[in-house]
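Example 3.2
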Amino acid sequence: MPVLGRSPQEIIDEDIGDQYDIFLGIMSTRFGTPTKSAASGTQHEFEKAYSRKASDPNSIELMFYFQNPGHSGREIVPSELQKVLDFKESISSKGLYCNYNNTDDFRTHVTSHLAKILGRISDKLQSQPSNHTPKKSQPIVEIDDVTEPDDPLRFLNQLDDDDELGFVELSDEIASAMAAATENMDRLVSSVTKLSDELVQQTRSLEGTTPASQEQAKRTLKAASHAMERFVTTSSSILPSFQSNLFNGLQLSRELLIILSQDNIGTEEERATIFQQFEELKSGMQISLDGFHSMSQAVLDSPRATSEFNRAKKRTNAILQGASSLISSAIEQVESVQEELESGPELSLGDILSAAIHSNEER
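Structure, written as tokens:
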């Protein structure tokens, strides 16, 4: 019911209370609305639940699910997605989350995990002492207790069915995602270059135009408008894929860094190689970003000649601004990954990594 004078989160906290056995959190590409005590309501509720878990490990079961960004089907806001990725990384050491792609994938994971958790809760309830008192008239026969041994398969049955990617598979997937992102970016740059060439050609055709040749000017402006609309159509089909591949590659990179750190693998030279690969990626993105900025300024500086031309200008500039914002955010995240690589310890990977790298080179 409507309540005034209190924050929505306070009302939700009161309605939910603390008497629940399972916490299930879900995030896609939006982090949520800030509260008085946390950056979002979901984070606030998770921290409350985790605090209970930390105080009493048997008091609550925690489950958290993150949808892979490329499968959300929604417009991705880079700043919001970054908050989700940062939160995901912050809880990674607690081993609390699972990734999923779509609704069916989510249903499969949750059904499996809930079945195991409910089984554990049922076992705990059955193990609690009974309040039943034997009747005094019943004879008490003293015999040695027979304790049934624990199920030897209980540890196996408690495992998740998910296949956790190792550093070798993560390296392959990162390379694949980044290669796809680079191809997307090359297509965007090619599209911008083509538009620039067409606009230069149209501008040259107007040089020396006199009032007597206004029809020629109109035809030129129409051709320029059509060129910009073609750019908008082409770029609109590339940008979503570019965003998905780019941020998927960056997220996989963060997961690889977690494994390298937690498993104490990766020499200084190997980290330097990864660092240089990201440096080359960042350099390419910076060049593209500069080109997009220059093109955006050139479009803005063009005269407001006709309504058709003005509309095409606005739509073209919107695409260029969107691409620039995406690349700027990606550059910041690449620099963040590079900082983690530089701060990582010098550790020995050993024969396993050497064999894995050798195997990858042969393929």
